[in-house]
Amino acid sequence: PDLFAFEILDGHLYLHIDLGSGHLKVRASKRRVDNGTWHDVSLRRVDRNGRVTVNGETIDFNTP
């Protein structure tokens, strides 16, 4: 089964993805998200290309 998961590690948001061909870990936030406030997060994937946006800052990624 496919896996999409978010985690907060050392104050930053990380995205974990496994679509069956290998695990990918992406640091999704440029700034810390452990400051006690709400954050806007979106994830978009088309085929093997993806984009995660945290508070308006976008990171593009490609899955294996």
Give structural notes.
The protein is mainly beta. It has one domain. The chain contains no helices and six strands. It has strands at residues 3-9, 12-18, 23-27, 41-46, 49-54, 57-62. The strands form two sheets. It has a three-stranded antiparallel beta sheet, with no helix packed on it. A hairpin with a 2-residue loop joins strand 4 (41-46) and strand 5. It is globular. The two termini are 15 Å apart. The model has no long low-confidence stretch (mean pLDDT 95). InterPro entries: ConA-like_dom_sf (IPR013320), Laminin_G (IPR001791). This is Laminin G domain-containing protein.
Integer tally of domains: 1
- Side-by-side strand order of the widest sheet: 1-2-3
Mean pLDDT: 95
Number of helices: 0
Helices and strands: which structural class?
Answer: mainly beta
Could you give a short description of this structure?
This protein has 64 residues and is mainly beta. It contains no helices and 6 strands.
Summary keywords:
6 strands, 64 residues, mainly beta
Question: What is the strand and helix layout of this fold?
Answer:
Elements: E1 3-9, E2 12-18, E3 23-27, E4 41-46, E5 49-54, E6 57-62
Antiparallel strand pairs: 1-2, 2-3, 4-5, 5-6
